[in-house]
Every structure is written in structure tokens, then in C-alpha cells.
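FAQ: What does a ligand-bound record look like?

Like this one, built around cobalt (II) ion:
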Amino acid sequence: MIGRLNHIAIAVPDLAAAAALYRDTLGAKVSAPADLPEHGVTTVFVELENSKIELLHPLGDNSAIAKYLERSPDGGMHHICFEVTDIIAARDQLRAEGARVLGNGEPRNGAHGKPVLFLHPKDFCGTLIEIEQI
Ligand code: CO
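The answer part, i.e. the structure of the complex:
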């Protein structure tokens, strides 16, 4: 069902510092910040040859990333994102296997304007999983 690894997301307390770290220290190509109010995050994408890193910073009052950073003030890995070709078929198959889909189960547009869903970390070895239709 899952295809390529689309990105790994890292929650960061200082987005500009994290972007500079990836750009200057690690020598990667880094995007400008983009606000995603629907998801309560500001994102910066780090472009790698074979995948991407999504740097996440809280946006607004009720951001899940703010809660994450309260528990992990230095930041840390927040989720991994796999590509799927048909997100509704993937969702239905995952539910049939007993996996929990977060929210109301209806895909929302993610950071690339493509439909995404999140899967409960307790069902996936303690890792929050995003699936994105490509
Ligand atoms: Co993501």
C-alpha cells in the first residue's frame, strides 16, 4: 500500500535556527517558511536527493506542535509521511486492519496541497504516521 517515504517531520522550537542549521551546517536546500493555519503549523521543507525533512513550528493558540514541544523542548521527530496512490482506499484498508485514523477520517490538504491523513501512533510502534496521496 505505502510507496515512497515523502518526508520526515521534526518539531523545532526555533524555526529560523533549525532552517539555518540544515542550510548552513548540513548544506541542504531549504525552502522559505509557509504557514498552514488549518494544521496549526509553520513549515520549512529541506529538500534531499531522495526525500524531504519537514521542520514544524507551532502556529496559533491550539497547535499540536506546541503540546509536543512542551514535552520535548529541544524538539524531536514528530511524524513520518508515506506516499499512497489512493488515500480513500488506503484509509479503508487500514481501518479494516484495525488501525485508527485520526480526526474525522476525511483527508485534509497537507503541506503540498495534496490530501493527507494521520494514523494513531499507538497502532504504529509509537510513531505518528501521515499518508499523502501523490
Ligand atoms: Co508531514
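Follow-up question: can I read anything off the structure? Yes, for example: The chain has one domain: 5-133.
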